[in-house]
Amino acid sequence: MVDKDLKGNIDRVELEEMVQVALLCTQFNPLYRPKMSEVLKMLEGDGLAEKWEASQKVETPRFRA
To answer: Fewer Cβ in 10 A, N or C end of the chain?
Structure first.
């Protein structure tokens, strides 16, 4: 996920936040996925913690093999 040309020169907190936003956008149930306006706000640093916390309480369906 991280450009090799950055040679490890990244802000790990920002990287973790971007991964959390990406995971929120790929939730199983589309109703729980954030709107693009919400994604923008989260990437700007507003509301990610609350959305992430709420997403951890959502029950995810399990597929049977």
So the answer is: C
Q: How far apart are CA 65 and CA 9, in angstroms?
A: 42
Enumerate residues 6+ apart whose C-beta is below 8 A from 47: 38, 41
CA dihedral 15, 37, 23, 29 (to 10 degrees): 180
Q: What is the pLDDT of residues 9-65, one digit of tens each?
A: 999 999 999 999 999 999 988 999 999 999 999 999 899 989 888 888 887 777 666
Which residues, in sequence order, are CB contacts of 58 under 8 Å at separation 6+? 27, 29, 32
